[in-house]
Every structure is written in structure tokens, then in C-alpha cells.
């Protein structure tokens, strides 16, 4: 990971109601993550951009939309794209995680996510939380007329 830039602010409460984090990795990948209690609708989405495709994963509705660039010029006024939509299997993520863990114990197979990767994810989350809290503290100092 190269950089993390995260901010958060209260909107309707004294706590942080909306937070945004931008994570840039050494390989050029950029992640923008937003968590909000003030959104007009409840949604859990992941969007992935590639050179010739865009994937939108709606974790709430369990729908994957894949938009790929098509060869050729297409119809005038329309993008030359192919759209595929797929319903995802309903399931219990926590149950699947526990079952995978137990399978690793039974078979000795290494887990899909290593302990090191889990620790790195936790450290990233903690860095984001720290920056969000720092941004809120700086905002409150500025509002109080104090220089940051």
C-alpha cells in the first residue's frame, strides 16, 4: 500500500455520519470506499474498473453487472458495450467463513486469506479510522477558531 487519505464528518449527530477513504496501492490500484449513515437508500456496492470492462457488484441485491467493451463501432450514439447481469447465490457469509476455517483445520490446507493478510487488512482499517478521527478533530479546532 502506498497512501491512505481518509476523512469523516458528522452530519446529523455528534458522531461521524459519513466517511470516505482513498487507498492507493504500489501497483497503481486505487480504492475509494465510503461509509454513510445519511444516505437516502441502503446500499452495499463494489465497483471494479478494468481497461475494457466495468463490474458493479450489488451486495445488497446480490446482482453482478458486467459491462464489457465490444469490438466494432456499434450503433451511432450508443457505446459499443455488452451488458451481462447475473444473480448471485444467496448465502451466509459468516457460516461460509467458519466452514472454510474448519476445513483448513481438518485438511491442513492453508486458508484463503492468510493471517498476515488479515493483519494487514486490520492495520489498514485502523489507519483509516485514525485519519477519520484526526480529520474530525481538525475540523472542530478550525470551527473553534484555532489553527490546526
TrEMBL record:
Extract the Pfam families matched here.
GFO_IDH_MocA_C
**What protein name is recorded for this chain?**
Oxidoreductase domain protein
Residue limits of the Gfo/Idh/MocA-like oxidoreductase C-terminal domain? 14-135
Q: Tell me which InterPro entries the record gives.
A: Gfo/Idh/MocA-like_OxRdtase_C
Amino acid at each position: 500500500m502506498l497512501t491512505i487519505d481518509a476523512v469523516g464528518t458528522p452530519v446529523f449527530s455528534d458522531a461521524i455520519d459519513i466517511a470516505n477513504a482513498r487507498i492507493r496501492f504500489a501497483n497503481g490500484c486505487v480504492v475509494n470506499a465510503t461509509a454513510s449513515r445519511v444516505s437516502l437508500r441502503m446500499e452495499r456496492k463494489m465497483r471494479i474498473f478494468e481497461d475494457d470492462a466495468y463490474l458493479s457488484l450489488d451486495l445488497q441485491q446480490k446482482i453482478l453487472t458486467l459491462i464489457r467493451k465490444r469490438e466494432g463501432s456499434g450503433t451511432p450514439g450508443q457505446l459499443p458495450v455488452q451488458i451481462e447481469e447475473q444473480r448471485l447465490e444467496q448465502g451466509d457469509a459468516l457460516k461460509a467463513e467458519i466452514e472454510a476455517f474448519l476445513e483448513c483445520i481438518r485438511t491442513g490446507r492453508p486458508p484463503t486469506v492468510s493471517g498476515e493478510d488479515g493483519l494487514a487488512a486490520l492495520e489498514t482499517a485502523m489507519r483509516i479510522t485514525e485519519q477519520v478521527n484526526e480529520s474530525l478533530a481538525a475540523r472542530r479546532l478550525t470551527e473553534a477558531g484555532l489553527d490546526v
